[in-house]
Amino acid sequence: MDSTRDLLVALARRHAFADLGALAPDPEIAEVCEFGHRLLSLDAEDFAAEARVVPADLRRRARACHMPQTPREQPRGALESLRPAYGLLLEVIAVRWHRRELSPMIAAVHIASEYLPLLAFEPQLGHAGDPARWPAGLSAAGSRFGVIGDRECDHTKSEQSATNRTLRVSAEPAEGWRAYFDRQHSQVAGALGVCVATCRNPCTAMDWIAPEPRADLQSRARTALAFAETPLVRLRHAAPVGHGFGVPSPEEVLDAWERSRAVLDKNPIGTSALKNDGFPLPGLPSLFSAIADTPIEPSTLLTGVSEHIVTLLERQP
Fold it and tell me: How far is CA 80 from CA 83, 210, 221, 299, in A?
């Protein structure tokens, strides 16, 4: 029995929640494993699913990363602040790296890149891009934000469609709300970054932000957009050459990150990626912190789930 328990404990410490759940000696442990697997898989729709056997603190921290499934759902989770979600993303990236699960690791990096402009906007918005709380200034006189077909606007057609939708989606039924987040919210994040950082024909959409904080936001948003174009993020779309299924090797990931750091080293925000902060991709938490204008560190949520499972296993007869 001790050898079996040792195996299960080892799986828990490796965050192998799916494997452990299949071998779990009782339903309570299996339910906690399912909770941990949702977190590791970044299944943000289901972070708030009932899991009564999970300690309340872990459930509360998971709900902070949850994406509301209706326009009026409370609490607002990741629409209130993206900072807990980015902490979880960093923890997932580290866990995937240590387990050499590099394809899902790069997928997590890609998700982080898509919403990074919203992390930059959070200090100005006072929330994390909640469509129910957009500032009226986005639609002020002279604004092109959300205007479909305006050729003076630097947004792509898909970004114009997404920004138009985001201004009215909070009045849609739950099905429309969920469809918007599945397909368009990340495009709104990028569109906001374009508005404040790279637009060649600025309109009044950003005039609700005072000049000094807007200049700071411009630098942080520009770096967020640049991160999405780095060699590291581009690994997500790399052709499957030399790997069979296109999974990069650890050496390729580190090489891509070093080249990405060099690309980002253009301003004080991007230079933060050069810090050696002890992360598997050195400087990534420092970069996210600089873009957010507040410290963002890897969470301990997955570790907390693992420790709770170990406690439950040690109680087994």
Answer: 9, 22, 19, 17
Among 93-107, 108-122, 234-248, name the one with the lowest average pLDDT.
Answer: 234-248
CA 288 to chain centre: 11
pLDDT above 70 as % of the chain: 96
CB 119 within 8 Å of CB 292: yes
Q: Is 170 left (phi over 0), alpha (psi -120 to 50) or beta?
A: alpha
Q: How many residues in the chain? A: 317
Q: What is the pLDDT of residue 41?
A: 95
The pair of three-digit structure tokens given for residue 67, joined into one six-digit string: 């994406």
Burial class of 176 by CB neighbour count within 10 A (0 to 12, 13 to 18, 19+)? middle
The whole-angstrom separation of Cα 66 and Cα 79 is: 8
145 exposed, middle or buried (CB, 10 Å; 0-12, 13-18, 19+)? Answer: buried
Is 182 found in the same domain as 233?
no
Q: Is residue 212 part of a domain?
A: no
pLDDT score of 226 more than 70: yes
- The CA distance from 204 to 42, in Å, is 36
Q: How confident is the model at residue 241 (pLDDT cuts 50, 70, 90)?
A: very low
Residue 105 lies in a domain: yes
Q: Would you say 134 and 172 are in contact if contact means Cβ atoms under 8 Å apart?
A: no
pTM of the model: 0.95
- Number of structural domains (the chain) is 2
- Whether residue 217 is contained in a domain is answered as no
**Which pLDDT does position 236 carry in this prediction?**
86
pLDDT in tens, 165-180: 999 999 999 999 999 9
The owner of tokens 């200049």 is: 215
